[in-house]
Specification:
The chain is an alpha+beta fold. It is about 45% helix and about 20% strand. It has one domain: Glutaredoxin (3-Layer(aba) Sandwich), CATH 3.40.30. It has four helices and four strands. It has a four-stranded mixed beta sheet, with helices on both faces. Strand 1, helix 1 and strand 2 form a beta-alpha-beta unit. Helix 1 packs parallel to helix 3. The model has no long low-confidence stretch (mean pLDDT about 95).
């Protein structure tokens, strides 16, 4: 399953989300909206108007931000989503 995460370099929540994914052994594609500002429009469309980073997608599923990712992990649902 492909994982994409829209980030910016100074975002602590972005670093936390990437750290969790890395600890779980999940490879992901990072899209830096700071260095590629045109990608912000893409992120806004995919995330239904959510404009904060990170915005995380597993396949076509919009996970949301860092808090949403950690909530899935705490609920024991992240592994199943990634494995699907």
């Amino acid at each position: 399953m492909s994982v994409e995460i829209y980030t910016s370099p100074l975002c602590g929540f972005c670093h936390a989300a990437k750290r969790l994914l890395t600890q779980k052994g999940v490879s992901f594609t990072e899209i830096d909206v700071w260095s590629e500002p045109e990608k912000r429009t893409e992120m806004l469309q995919r995330a239904k108007g959510r404009h904060t980073v990170p915005q995380i997608f597993v396949g076509e599923t919009h996970v949301g931000g860092c808090d949403d990712l950690y909530a899935l992990e705490r609920a024991g649902k992240l592994d199943n989503l990634i494995a699907a």
